[in-house]
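Notebook B, p. 112. Complex prediction, attempt 2.
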Amino acid sequence: MATTSYATGANAAQPDAATQIEIYRRMNLIMQNDEASRKIIRSGRLMMPYYSQRGQEVIPSAISVNLNDDDKICTIYRGIHDMLAKGVPLRALWAEIAGRVTGTCKGKGGPMHITHPASGAILTTGIVGSSMPIANGLAWAAKLDKSRQVTIANFGDGASNIGAFHESLNLASLWKLPVIFVCQNNRFAEHTRYENGTSVDQISKRAAGYGMPGITVDGNDPYEMYAVANEAINRARDGEGPTLIEAMTFRFFGHVFGDDDFYMTKEEKSAAMAADPVPLYRAKLIANGVATEEKLAALEADIAAQIADAIEFALASDMPPLEELTRDVYAEQGVA
Amino acid sequence: MSAAENKIETKKITIIQAINEAIAEAMEADPKVIVLGEDVADREGGGVVGVTRGLSTRFGDDRVRSTPITEQAIIGAAIGAAIGGYKVVAEIMLMNFTTVAMDMIVNHAAKLRFMSGGQTGVPIVIRMMTGAGISSGGQHSDFLEAWFAHTPGLKVVMPSNPEDAKGLMLSAITDPDPVMFVECTRAYFTPYETPVKVAPIPLGKAKVTQEGTDVTIISYSEIFLRATAAAAALAKDGISVELIDLRTISPWDRATVIASVKKTGRAVIAHEAVKQFGVGAEIAATLQEELFGQLKAPVKRLGAPYTSVPFSGVLEQAFIVSVAGIVAAARATLA
């Protein structure tokens, strides 16, 4: 069942023009948001552990256009791109990373724990591998409800070496859960190069051990990513069970903000950045007549304005009141 | 009221049956209550000691689901399903096996409500059994409640008898937050006269089972039965014991414990877990904070020695707090 032909070829789903533009909008939103985040941290106006998603824009953008609002996602600390693509509102996101009471989690979660159930953004975990067991549970609930909702479990290549990955894939396959495991393989687990930490050359091969389809896809190609996600999501909705997607990508700015990338060569980093998927896809949309330069420029300006508004909103918002320190430990207040 | 009107209908049941009845009643009342864990369905025997026996036959295999041996995936599935609108009773067969699901329990179940600013609560019950005295050795017998009571976001419940087990389980299942429900294997098999109808018992409420004036003995789980026997022995010597079954370890019933010790001036705390850094330490510290100057003797703590649960029967019996030990500790507070 380890596959190479999944969702490719003549039968592959193709995004229509509006969807192609929507994928670009999400990619550009993620890119601009990441740039604004790094800029504000550099300026010293906000302080946080920040895991740049720059370079990984395609994956959640091309997946999420296949999702409904009530579908769920779980992600990890490098997950703000997943959250934005699923529709977490910018103002609440920025207020959260600024630690303000108007944030998605009243400032109590921070960038590593963005949660916004109204958008289907259920979990951001700071623990490698832990998005998967919980995604299974959301998928189990959907299956019991017969709702046809699906859940996306995002994780990195490093997470495929932790026990939770293996336990989760086994249970999801055994129970035919409507869950899609999306490994965003950016080729480094913190500072460890893929081949120095992983015993197989493709993580998708591990799917065979759990009796589910696995496919490696160019996670920087919006068309391939869309087609593979579309098929996996449809399978899950139709009760045919989970899929493991390994989406190949590259993170441009290391593990965490401030990382000096000593563990990678300048050549491979500059080659990856030269193949930046955002401008490449933009050029393709124009070349193929899907969108005009003017249309995309207007869309980008609109995103820039939304981000500027969100930052302004966040910084003008109140800090959480001190009562929040012990609120939400339990549903009932004052339990200890 | 006449005696006849006072009469409560009872039957003899064990803790195993009591918990089974509580889960069944909860499942009957709410179709969103579901059960998962290793061997919990009837095809696999309804649990290793039969706590969930009959439930899958009655409520269907979708609602009572046997799992592989996969503790992280079990608790993860419970958390996700709970966020997805279900009330989940997850069985982790033995308390020591929680260690392989610790990330799910401590980093996720316990924290998700807080970290999400109240958006994603996790209404799950994690059931487990444990206890020395059945020759299971070092990895199948530990009482680890202090770890979980030290984790904000979790509740910890430890009943000593079938009626409490049933009433507390009913409350645990409807509780909006994660509850660690710890069952002592030694206490499982003894039948007790138990009311046929048991109302939910609020979590966090201790039970004063015997009023007294000389010394307060505070305990929980199976050791509480030993504390009860110790109180009877002390009564023969004219020592009046006030006996408190804590029932819930977190949140614990400070008010009841403090009021009792304020009255008696003396306290003995007994549990099976190792004494060092145990629940007894928290209670003793609270008593000196609240009642310094009113205590007539130092607070006594009884727990296991700082060692692993041994296999050999002689060592194993010496590991567990004894009736004689509780009696001696109570006497020491009166010396």
